[in-house]
Amino acid sequence: MTADTFTAVLWPEDHGPRRGPKPALSKERIAAEAIALADNAGLEAVTMQRLADGLGCAKMALYRHVPGRGELIALMTDTALGTPPELDGDWRTGLRQWTEAAWRGFTPHPWLAYTAVGPRVFGPNELGWLEAALGALDGTGLGPDQRLDVVALLSGHVRALVLQAGGAYGTTEAEMIDANHGILAAHGDDFPLTVAAFGHTGTDNAFEFGLTCILEGVAARIADAG
Fold it and tell me: In the chain, what are the domain boundaries?
């Protein structure tokens, strides 16, 4: 598998309308079935054989559309991300809209926190999300590299909280506190600051608090840039 195979899946050449009946199997149908499988059973459940079983086709039929599991996951990722939001207002309003939209998009698909990372070929939807966020920062005085860093920071904030809420840890803040209640009750004297923090939380406000801190930091950098 090379970058070319990912590009071919994510950026197919338009050969115009095909003659004859519409094929029963398509990349859109494959992606939808794979996304549903990952949402219900986790990313590890997405295998070519299980996907073929769900689609009611032979496994070899899948390879005519996606040459391997890596390309399949790339297609799932770009499809699940969907089209980017329309942003308006100043840079702060735009970035808030963008991050809130990403949070809403990632939450039902926690596996995106694992697949939308690292060096990879971007699909049209993912590139659209990136372009929208960078566009919100256009004209702020930040350089292109700094704008990209801001987007990475906001994306990381979303992914970290998605993992905390529905991914690797599978718990909300309140559930985490409840799970550790007995331990802290028995050993609280050794961890007084943690006991105090847990005793004044439970609102699951980490997303808003973190986003506000990030945007305030970006505002400071913009001010420094003049």
Answer: 3-80, 83-224
Q: Domain spanning 3-80 has what CATH number?
A: 1.10.10.60
pTM, two decimals, is 0.87
Give how far the C-alpha of residue 95 lies from the chain's centroid of Cα atoms, to the nearest Å: 16
Contact criterion met (CB below 8 Å) for 140 and 91 = yes
Q: How far is CA 80 from CA 73, 85, 148, 210, in A?
A: 10, 14, 22, 24
CA distance 156 to 57: 38
CA distances (Å), 14 to each of 61, 119, 192, in order?
21, 26, 63
pLDDT in tens, 180-194: 888 888 988 888 898
- Which residue bears the tokens 């292109």? 144
Residue pair 116/71 in contact by the 8 Å Cβ criterion: no
* Residue-wise burial string across 42-67, b where 16 or more C-beta atoms lie within 10 A, e elsewhere: ebeebebeebbeebeeeeeebeebbb
Query: Which CATH number describes the domain made up of 83-224?
Result: 1.10.357.10
pLDDT at position 174, please?
Answer: 73
Spatial distance between the Cα atoms of 219 and 91, rounded to a whole number of angstroms: 9
Angstrom distance (rounded) from CA 171 to CA 167: 8
List the one residue out of 104, 91, 167, 190 whose CA is nearest residue 132.
91
Name every residue whose Cβ is closer than 8 Å to that of residue 192 and which is 6 or more positions away in sequence.
Answer: none
| Residues 55, 63: Cα–Cα separation, whole Å | 13
pLDDT value at residue 168? 44
**Helix 48-55 / helix 27-41 crossing angle, nearest 10 deg:** 110
